[in-house]
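Researcher: We plan to redesign the surface later, but first we want a full-length starting point. Tokens attached.
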């Protein structure tokens, strides 16, 4: 597989599968995910990982990351793990109640990155299933509520934008700009496009004096992120399908569909 790790920072692809409650994405990494849900995450049952500070659950014979160690996990070189897959859970008691069938379903999830049945377990109370290969390059996330997906997207885009262009101050120092999260209503109104698969390109942001415009292209459903990336390279020379616009004076976001 070709790697575009340097591009992960400034190009985001998302494709939402409503029936099966997952989103395929490129460009959003676990560190951003952990920051977006900081303080509200459950423990993580690690299905595929290389984290060296996990605890061991005797019933599933799997390691898990307690919620208080999630920041340590997020600071690790997760991209370097290769496969990184987990399901969250509220209490270890829930893990100990899993049947052999349910454990088999979880192992299949981590191995095939596909579900045998929708992977939401009342025993675990999980909000997510996170299945990644080269974290940020190919991510498949199951969401119990898509509200969490729109929260993540809103958070990740504003953080990425702030890191993208450092402005020079009078003293010639680099100054980080901070942007408010993009209103969830704006992102929600993009749902029909996200169901088809979109690229949100921060590298192609048009910086103007009073505003900046982030272009969005509808590019379709891709299981291969290499194919998606090639499609983006071709389509990015054409007019975009929508723009998210930030007004620098009012500090407000709006959406224009073209």
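Model: Full-length starting sequence:
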């Amino acid at each position: 597989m070709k790697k575009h790790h340097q591009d992960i920072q400034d190009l985001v692809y998302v494709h939402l599968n409503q029936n099966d409650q997952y989103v395929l994405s490129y460009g959003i990494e676990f560190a951003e995910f952990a920051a977006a849900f900081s303080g509200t995450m459950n423990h993580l049952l690690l299905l595929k990982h290389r984290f060296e500070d996990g605890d061991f659950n005797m019933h599933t014979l799997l390691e898990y990351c307690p919620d208080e160690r999630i920041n340590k996990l997020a600071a690790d070189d997760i991209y370097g793990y290769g496969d990184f897959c987990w399901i969250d859970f509220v209490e270890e008691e829930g893990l100990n109640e899993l049947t052999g069938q349910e454990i088999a379903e979880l192992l299949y999830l981590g191995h095939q990155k596909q579900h045998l049945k929708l992977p939401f377990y009342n025993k675990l109370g999980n909000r997510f299933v996170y299945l990644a290969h080269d974290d940020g390059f190919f991510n498949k996330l199951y969401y119990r509520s898509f509200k969490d997906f729109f929260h993540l997207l809103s958070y990740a885009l504003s953080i990425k934008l702030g890191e993208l262009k450092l402005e020079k101050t009078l003293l010639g120092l680099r100054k980080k700009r901070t942007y408010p999260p993009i209103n969830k209503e704006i992102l929600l109104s993009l749902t029909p496009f996200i169901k088809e698969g979109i690229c949100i390109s921060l590298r192609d942001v048009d910086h103007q004096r009073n505003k900046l415009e982030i272009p969005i292209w509808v590019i379709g459903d891709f299981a291969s992120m290499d194919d998606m990336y090639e499609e983006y390279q071709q389509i990015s020379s054409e007019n975009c399908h929508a723009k998210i616009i930030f007004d620098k004076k009012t500090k407000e976001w709006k959406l224009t569909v073209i």
